């Protein structure tokens, strides 16, 4: 089950990254202006962010297994049809549909992990999932670029979409056999209302933390190739090798951190202490990395780039393990839906604001400084706004238990 959930998010990130990889080819083929191309690239986040909350509700109401499968069908078809697009309007519409389909990913995956994975194993499970979606951009860029160089950009979209649909075959078998919920949730925990969830300071803490980490992540993901070539003078080949290695380190760090956190908890360590320490180190460390990339020489800048990828990878398991622990299976879908809706607004803001800052200053320094400041704010969300990391007692005025893992 965990492997297939990871595969779904891997496919999710490969499919969403196909258009940026093909952007220069699509612009030339369809005669798009830079403004039209920018609108197409950002349109994904319009529906992706807005649909997070309703998809989280739908995952709990209809069932996350069905909603995830339905969303994958929608985004796979949108990917395939993009390969047939011949106008700006069609391309924009399909990008909006892709965002709508892919919005099911994290709410459904988080809901299912909270149902079937024991709390003490959530770090490892989320580490595996994070490895998959963090590896998606690297694999998608390499595979997409190779396919486009041989058969053109249209063939890559058609093939990616068709291959995505094959995930449904093993999913139909495994999801039918997997347990429907952990014993602690099946015992009769009350399903919280929207008001009960929205009154939780921890919800706004995880949302602020995700927005902060996403700002730096989307800034780097969108502008790293341009930065390495234009600001640091690397060739296109050198850039692709450096960026690919950095993304690989990011993914490997996620698996290692998730496993290490679970081992710490198994030996009697505090879940809250483990997850919060990693989050604090990642956000504070990201400040130093951003400043090194902005003002350091080439060796220091590259060191900052690789260290940032290692830190953000290590923080990835906690981004969703923490709300899964807090909300439990009864509310994780809606909680993560709200968290992702707010957190992914960074995908709208970061790339656009960075472009304006580069245009106004002629360099990346100001953009890195802003990313460092936003990263530092995230510490507030993950630490003081989440006083105790434990499953909430929804019946008892939503008061959290002590700072330890909930018993099973």
Could you name the key traits of this structure?
single chain, 408 residues, mainly alpha, Growth Hormone, Chain: A, two-stranded antiparallel sheet, 18 helices, 2 strands, globular, disordered C terminus
**Major beta-sheet overview:** 2 strands, antiparallel
CATH class: Mainly Alpha
Order of helices and strands: HHHHHHHHHHHHHHHHHHEE
Using the coordinates shown, work out and report the CATH topology: Growth Hormone, Chain: A
Order of strands in the sheet with most strands: 1-2
Kindly provide the radius of gyration, computed on alpha-carbon positions and rounded to a whole number of angstroms: 21 Å
Number of domains: 1
> What structural class should be given to the helix and strand makeup?
mainly alpha
Q: What is the count of helical runs?
A: 18
Question: How many DSSP E strands?
Answer: 2
Write the CATH homologous superfamily: MFS general substrate transporter like domains
What fraction of residues sit in β-strands? under 5%
CATH architecture: Up-down Bundle
Average pLDDT rating: 86
Distance between the termini: 20 Å
- Could you name the ranges where pLDDT drops below 50 across 5 or more consecutive residues? 182-188, 396-408
